[in-house]
Amino acid sequence: MEFRIDSSVLTDAVAWAARVLPARSPVPVLGGLLLEASDGRLRVSGLDYEASARIEVEADTARDGRALVLGRRLLDICKVLPRGVVECVVEGARLSVTGGEARFGLSLLPLDDYPAQPGLPAFRGVVDADAFAAAVGQVAVAAGRDDSLPVLTGIRLALDGTTMTLAATDRYRYAVRTLEWKPEGEDGASEGADVVVPARRLTEIARSLTTTGPVRLALDGGSIGFESDGTRTTTRLLDGRLPRHDKLFSLGEHAVAVTDRAPLLEAVKRVAVVAEGDSPVQLAFAGDTVQLQAGYEDDVASQRLPALLEGAESMTVAFNPGYLLDALGSFGTDSVRFHLLGPGQRALITDREDGVHQHLLMSVKPLV
User: Fold this and answer.
1) Is the domain of 43 the same as that of 138?
2) What is the pTM of this model?
């Protein structure tokens, strides 16, 4: 195998495929990246037991061939290559990488031991990459981190007609985001789906696909895949289902408070510096203001902001400051709307414009 390629193109391709490589593996070949050169193209592939990634880029292929090398070592080399054209040649049992006056040699891993790259499931439709990445980021903050409850570390992805719903919860908060997508088929119809994807994997995939334009989504009972602009990636699904959010988000009669998002976010950060551990930040809504307060006894902080409360003369609620910051930071709108039942009860935060993004928090006992 022999090919020439721009160093920046090679670095980007290797970095993209290396995302799925396991940090540690008892199977050495799973730490490898497969390089395949033919017909003016270079394909770089990586996989582990949960995910796979493949990217295809243009290259000047002088001699077709395949080579398997340690992926993270190749990535480290790519990061320090001089700018310009790089020449890669298989010489005996190693891959030689030459850029300018710099030359590196990498031992080859046994190709016969490398598993076959999994194929993509059946294509289901197309979604805009930027919109999808933004939506995944908005709900991922609510996903659990406890691996003893695997399903709560995932993001629910549900397809219903032309609507895609993404949702995540760790039992203390629940984020939901809907967006439009285009099902495959002439009539625009697609079989519905309701699956749970590992949040970390889906977040990595979504970020890597930004700016690529339309992304084709593939799905079956065990895995989900995405394909766009020469890239292809898959990841396994999690077993189980997330609890339904419909009843949780139905608050009945409640008060509504509207305030500017960015000033509130900064104010929560400011007053929370005196909060010990998970002690709450209190929001006291009354008339056209909200009073923020945190801390106890002598170590206290407060700030007042404009806000508009409807449905009650006053309402005081308190939240875990980290959860509240995550929720407010996940919105991209100028203002947010708090739907409030009362102290110690559910509170729903929505964007003011269309409500396609919703974030449920449990309020806690207010400060005394």
Assistant:
1) no
2) 0.90
